[in-house]
Design a protein that fits this description.
Order of helices and strands: HEEEEEEEEHEEEH
Mean pLDDT: 81
Largest sheet: 6 strands, antiparallel
Number of helices: 3
């Protein structure tokens, strides 16, 4: 009976702290995303907002070889005369509406920016490493890419957002009550 109680505890712990992952695809098109943010005159952020539960999150750049990813890299000049000079890999994220945090080269410096690569594969190879942040409670987190002129863009970026969720205090208390009840039941059966 003890093995049953231990199995119940392990199952409950795994259920409460289960891993979760979601792919976020951000198109460089102005109207190709669920969220558009006016950041300053002429500059907009485009992306998506996730309501994330408490936990520690890891955000990892992914390309189209990853299940659910739609993009390899973003190109600021893909539809004009510079199709091989504008490939880049950067993004921003904002937790709970706070100022955005830049991740990557932040390629915002014109045609000759050294962060630009000559191919999507080259830009992805230079993508930033994983970023980690922790949320104490459920919070909206917006992932976005920004530009001042969207008509000449191509591609986009894809992110894998993963976590091992931290149980809410109420859930943890309920689990502990259940474990105590199982232990008491097992003890009574064993003593009977």
């Amino acid at each position: 009976m003890k093995s049953f109680a231990y199995a119940a505890v392990a199952t409950a712990a795994l259920a409460l702290g289960s891993a979760h992952a979601e792919v976020v695809n951000i198109s460089t098109a102005l109207y190709g995303n669920p969220v558009t943010i006016d950041l300053s005159p002429g500059v907009k952020g485009v992306g998506t907002t996730l309501n994330l539960m408490a936990g520690t999150y890891t955000v990892t750049p992914v390309d189209t070889s990853f299940a659910g990813a739609m993009f390899d890299a973003a190109n600021r000049f893909g539809y004009v005369s510079l199709p091989t000079l504008g490939w880049e890999w950067d993004y921003f994220y904002s937790i709970g509406g706070a100022d955005g945090i830049a991740v990557g080269d932040g390629a915002q410096g014109g045609v000759n920016n050294p962060a630009y690569r000559d191919s999507a594969a080259g830009a992805f190879a230079a993508a930033p490493g994983p970023v980690t942040f922790t949320l104490a409670s459920a919070t909206d987190v917006t992932f976005y890419w920004l530009d001042d002129a969207f008509g000449d863009n191509a591609g986009g970026i894809s992110l894998n957002v993963s976590t091992s969720a931290v149980p809410e205090p109420g859930s943890m208390a309920l689990m502990l009550v259940g474990v105590a009840a199982l232990a008491l039941r097992a003890r009574r059966r064993h003593g009977a």
